[in-house]
Amino acid sequence: MSNSFILRAADRGHETILSTGPTASYVGGHPDAFITRQSSFNFHDYQSGRAGFGRIRVFGDETFNNPGCSYNMHPHHNFIICAFVLSGRLQHINTTGNNDELLAGDYYAFSAGSGGLHTEINVHREPMNAIYLWMLPDHLYLPPSYVRGRFDAEASANRIKPLLGADAALPIPQDAKVSRLFSTKPGRHVYRPRSSGHGVYCFVIDGTLACDGTTLGSRDSKGIWNATEVVLETGDAPADALLVETIL
Amino acid sequence: MSDRDFKRWLCLGCGFSYDEALGLPEHGISPGTRWADIPDDWCCPDCGTPKHLFEMVEIPYAPGQPTPQRPPL
Ligand SMILES: [Zn+2]
Prior knowledge:
The complex is a heterodimer. Chain A has strands spanning 3-7, 13-18, 27-28, 34-39, 56-65, 69-75, 80-87, 90-94, 99-102, 106-111, 117-122, 128-135, 145-150, 160-165, 176-183, 187-191, 198-206, 209-211, 214-216, 221-225, 230-234, 239-247. Chain A is mainly β. In chain A, strands 2-4-5-12-7-10-13 form a seven-stranded antiparallel sheet, with no helix packed on it. A six-stranded antiparallel sheet of chain A has the order 1-20-17-22-15-14, with no helix packed on it. A five-stranded antiparallel sheet of chain A has the order 3-6-11-8-9, with no helix packed on it. Chain B is mainly beta. Chain B is built from no helices and three strands. Chain B has a three-stranded antiparallel sheet with strand order 2-1-3, with no helix packed on it. In chain B, strand 1 (8-11) and strand 2 form a beta hairpin. The radius of gyration of chain B is 12 Å and the shape is globular. The A-B interface holds A 42-44, 47, 51, 57-58, 74-79, 112-114, 136-143 and B 8, 10-17, 46-47, 53, 55, 57, 59-62, 65-66. Bound molecules: zinc ion. Zinc ion is lined by residues 11, 13-14, 16, 44, 46-47, 49 of chain B.
């Protein structure tokens, strides 16, 4: 018998982080820039939800508004930080020597390890929306590392496409895996976690699908564990979802 | 892991870790200082996250990094 939780879009934590006032040293782009963050799990001022899921500690649906909107260069340790750009353009700069512009469909995983630093910036008028995912690593103080990839929705449509982690082209130092399903037609897609000790967090980016019988709309999500498979059913309208598998 | 073993705590704001065995001598906390003995109003030196938002972890160190230690009897 599998277990699950359902998190509706409106029930996530909501924060607006200004580039003025007490958060000015953290968020750049003064005076007009601000970040909106919708957290699936407890993070920062939002502490009334779930603590995390398996190795996932942060799952933030973030929008950088107005040119110059950024997280200033800041230190990190140990967490594996992944960003999946959904719209707009993100400039990601880190101290392993990367300075990348990421467009919709692009993603990266930055393992901050023993103390990598990074900055995230939107220099354009168009808002930048990305999913930020933080995972605990399998070792502390690994050498910082960075990988990036691109999800081509058209080429990968109507199947579950691994993006990061086990069985994907881009490895991460954790027993976790991120996949994406972009569907354009009715279908039944079965996701099989590597063991019943792995949980799956399904987050709908856009559209509607049924996840193990639960209808999930845009930005709704469901976590499932003690399951040998997770069934995603899609309809005529396009649907887009991220699947994060993690050891529990 | 027994209660006696030194433990590690991770800042959920940035990943900064506090290892009881190592302390934080550069911040005036000597090696062997237990988490419970750190003041409740202590914050992450890197990101300001308060002590109560740290999480105890049992994640091992990468090769070449500090090896877990046991306190002297
Ligand atoms: Zn911190």
